Amino acid sequence: MFNNLNGWEIVALVLVALLIFGERLPKVIGDGLRMLRGLRAMAQNATTDLSRELGTDIQLQDLHPKAFIRKHLLSEDEEQAIRKPLQGLFDDVKTDLNGVKADLEDVASAADLKSRRDDAADSAVQVAKPSRTYDADAT
Q: What is the pTM of this model?
């Protein structure tokens, strides 16, 4: 829990706690530990009740909805049956996207849009500059 604290930092925290709580520090520590034990007992009772009601062994990590459904409501065969058509669709879409990407790269290289833009910009600059047909010093 305190892996990233060195000894001096822990000593500083204890001194700050002594300054804040003073003589009440042992009572505060005891109340904190009692509260922690109570929270652990509540979590254990909740998992025990769920395990008893569902008839399976449940851990706290299993209470995430996805993990719960995957582990306790679906068998491995049912999970594979659900994944199989979806995996096929995923593979088809992936190959189609790779094909579209290759086609777009071919079109872009054939069109060579960047060099055409540069040529168009150069010609626009040339058109924008009027050529002088008269002598400015003579007028």
A: 0.36
